[in-house]
Structure to design on (294 residues):
């Protein structure tokens, strides 16, 4: 965070050192939040992109600081039982709004490649994983064989997707169930919208362990949070779309993608190119996440 006479700002920067191809694409992140300013998707104000690495040693951009609440635990312990369903409905509404953006009218028509999204993504994350592989993990080998063989036929859906849509990437109003800004767009692209929905539901399926805070071991009814089927139904309601087929594939792919990301962060930690010690801790999550997908 930056403090200035005119107010508070946030600086987002690429890490220093050698990175995997396309990792920490802050220039793409700047472009998308700048484009979304005139839409119904809540985002921070994109103020300036600096591509000259001589300034700080890495590309960076500056955006507005949004004062609000960030929830890290999907059980929402800070809220009462009667409030929680409303916050979940709001985050589903915002996700549907992202997927409803007219990409051509906001200048994002070329933000990603159209068609065959899952085929391309499975290939991409397989390559990313292999580039960062440090030991053989059998569930990952199984997934790298199963996913290409079971990819659903392309149904023509193509739109803006966030790529890391989860509770702690939303800034809520300090007192209301209203999202002020969706943050952390570095994995955003054009693709199949169900990738975001499955990723969000996958996060809820994970157990609450260490840095991972899921709802797998929680009584959702007692908490007043939505069951997965209710999340899917509300999403379909906002998007005015029918029931979802091949849900198991979308979930399996989301687990695989997360495992690949964790492996990449872990490898950067080993190479000394990741900030903090958490990068090294993520290495132990790769196998259980992949096993959950299998």
């Amino acid at each position: 965070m930056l403090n200035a006479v005119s107010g508070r700002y946030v600086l987002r920067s690429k890490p220093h050192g050698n990175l995997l191809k396309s990792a920490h694409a802050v220039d793409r992140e700047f472009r998308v939040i700048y484009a979304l300013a005139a839409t119904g998707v809540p985002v921070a104000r994109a103020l300036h992109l600096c591509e000259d690495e001589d300034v700080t040693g890495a590309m960076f951009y500056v955006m507005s600081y949004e004062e609000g609440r960030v929830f890290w635990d999907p059980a929402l312990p800070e809220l009462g039982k009667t409030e929680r369903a409303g916050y979940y409905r709001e985050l589903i509404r915002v996700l549907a709004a992202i997927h409803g953006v007219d990409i051509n009218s906001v200048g994002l028509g070329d933000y990603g490649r159209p068609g065959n999204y899952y085929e391309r993504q499975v290939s991409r994350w397989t390559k990313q994983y292999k580039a960062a592989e440090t030991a053989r993990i059998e569930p990952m080998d199984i997934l790298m064989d199963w996913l290409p063989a079971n990819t659903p036929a392309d149904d023509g859906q193509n739109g803006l997707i966030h790529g890391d849509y989860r509770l702690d990437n939303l800034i809520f109003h300090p007192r209301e169930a209203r999202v002020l800004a969706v943050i952390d767009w570095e994995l955003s692209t054009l693709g199949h919208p169900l990738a975001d929905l499955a990723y969000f539901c996958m996060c809820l399926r994970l157990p609450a362990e260490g840095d991972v805070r899921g709802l797998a071991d929680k009584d959702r009814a007692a908490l007043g949070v939505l069951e997965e089927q209710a999340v899917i139904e509300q999403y379909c309601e906002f998007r005015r779309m029918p029931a979802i087929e091949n849900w198991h594939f979308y979930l399996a792919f989301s687990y695989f993608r997360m495992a690949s990301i964790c492996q990449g962060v872990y490898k950067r930690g080993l190479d000394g190119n990741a900030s903090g010690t958490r990068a090294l801790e993520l290495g132990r999550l790769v196998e259980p996440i992949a096993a959950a997908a299998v």
